[in-house]
Design a protein that fits this description.
One of its GO terms (molecular function) is oxidoreductase activity, acting on the CH-OH group of donors, NAD or NADP as acceptor. This is Cinnamoyl-CoA reductase 2. InterPro entries: Epimerase_deHydtase, NAD(P)-bd_dom_sf, NAD(P)_dehydrat-like. By secondary structure, the chain is α/β, with parallel strands linked by helices. The chain has two domains: 105 residues, NAD(P)-binding Rossmann-like Domain (Rossmann fold); 62 residues, no CATH class. It has a four-stranded parallel beta sheet with strand order 3-2-1-4, with helices on both faces. The structure holds NADP nicotinamide-adenine-dinucleotide phosphate. NADP nicotinamide-adenine-dinucleotide phosphate (NAP) binds next to helix 1 and helix 5. NADP nicotinamide-adenine-dinucleotide phosphate binds next to helix 1 and helix 5.
Length: 210
C-alpha cells in the first residue's frame, strides 16, 4: 500500500481489540498517524500494537475509558478522523449498554468538538445471529471456500441472541436488508474488489430467501 502524502491523524478507540488492531495495522501501512485509545497503555496485552510496522514512528497509545469524556476528548482533539470500536463485548446487557450508549455519545461529542466530519455508511443490524449461523449461511452460498461449519461450543446449547430490538428504527421507516442478503453481497463485493479470490466452480444462480 502506498503511504498517504500528507500525514493524517486518526484516532482508533479500543485499539487493542480484535477489530481495532486490524484497523490500526492497515492505517499504519497506509501511512496514517494513529492515536489508539486503550484502557491501560502499560498492559502487556497491547504490546502487539507496538510491534506493528510503522508503530514506532506513528502510533501513540492514549489512556482512555469510554465513560471518561475528558480522556476521550484528549485522545481525539487534533485528529482528522475517528474509528470507534471500543465496547465491552458480552451477552450481559447490564455490562454493555451503559458504556456502549454513553461511550458512543462521548466519542461523537468529542469528535464533533474536534471538528471531525462524519462520513461513510451507517450500518444497523437486522437481526442478531450466533456465529455458527453466520458460517452456515456463508458455507451454503459459497461452498467453494473452506468455511468452518463447526463451532467449539457446539456441544452446548447455543447462546440466545441479545434481547435488543430494532423496532424503533423500523418505526422510523427504515427498511433493513436481510442478514443473508447482506452476507451474500459482502462476499460478492470483496470478490469484485479483489480481496477474495473468485473460485472457478462458483455459480451465480443462488437464490436468497429470508
Ligand atoms: N469481532 C467481530 O466479529 C464483531 C462482529 C460484529 C460486531 N462487532 C463489534 O465490534 C466492536 C469491537 O469488537 P471486537 O471483536 O474488536 O471486540 P474486542 O476484541 O473485545 O475489543 C473491544 C475493545 O473495547 C475495549 N473496551 C471495552 N470497554 C471499554 C471501556 N469502558 N472503555 C474503553 N475501552 C473499552 C476493550 O478493552 P479491554 O480489552 O481493555 O477491555 C477492547 O480493546 C464491538 O462493538 C463488537 O460488538 C465485532
Amino acid at each position: 500500500m502506498s503511504p498517504v502524502s500528507t500525514p493524517t491523524t486518526i484516532c482508533v478507540t479500543g485499539a487493542g481489540g480484535f477489530i481495532a488492531s486490524w484497523i490500526v495495522k492497515l492505517l499504519l501501512e497506509k501511512g496514517y498517524v494513529i492515536r489508539g485509545t486503550v484502557k491501560n497503555p502499560d498492559d502487556a496485552k497491547n504490546n502487539h500494537l507496538r510491534e506493528l510496522e510503522g508503530a514506532k514512528e506513528r502510533l501513540t497509545l492514549c489512556k482512555a475509558d469510554l465513560l471518561d469524556f475528558e480522556s476521550l476528548r484528549e485522545a481525539i482533539i487534533g485528529c482528522d478522523g475517528v474509528f470507534h470500536t471500543a465496547s465491552p463485548v458480552t451477552d450481559d446487557p447490564e455490562q454493555m449498554v451503559e458504556p456502549a450508549v454513553t461511550g458512543t455519545r462521548n466519542v461523537i461529542v468529542a469528535s464533533a468538538e474536534a471538528k471531525v466530519k462524519p462520513s461513510g455508511r451507517y450500518l444497523c443490524t437486522e437481526s442478531v445471529l450466533h456465529r455458527g449461523e453466520v458460517v452456515e449461511i456463508l458455507a451454503k452460498f459459497f461452498p467453494e471456500y473452506p468455511i468452518p461449519t463447526k463451532c467449539k461450543d457446539e456441544t452446548k446449547p447455543r447462546a440466545k441472541p441479545y434481547i435488543f430490538s430494532n423496532q424503533k428504527l423500523k418505526d422510523l421507516g427504515l427498511e433493513l436488508k436481510t442478514v443473508k442478503q447482506s452476507l451474500y453481497e459482502t462476499v460478492k463485493s470483496l470478490q469484485e474488489k479483489g480481496h477474495l479470490p473468485v473460485q472457478p466452480t462458483q455459480t451465480d444462480d443462488i437464490r436468497i430467501r429470508s
